[in-house]
Amino acid sequence: MYSLSNKTVIITEATPGIGKATALAAAGANVALIDIQDPQQTADEIINKNGSCRASAI
What we know:
The chain is about 30% helix and about 30% strand. By secondary structure, it is an alpha/beta fold. A 3-stranded parallel sheet has the order 1-2-3, covered by helices on one side.
């Protein structure tokens, strides 16, 4: 299994569907979420899994 530890993952369209699923799967990395809608709920889910995440709506 590939480890995302010590990696940074940037995900666009992080609130719906595949983007959100990918963000949650990447919870072991430093995750940056960018979306038109506020991705803070997805970020909170990652943080609750003891992940590191920043979220930004554009």
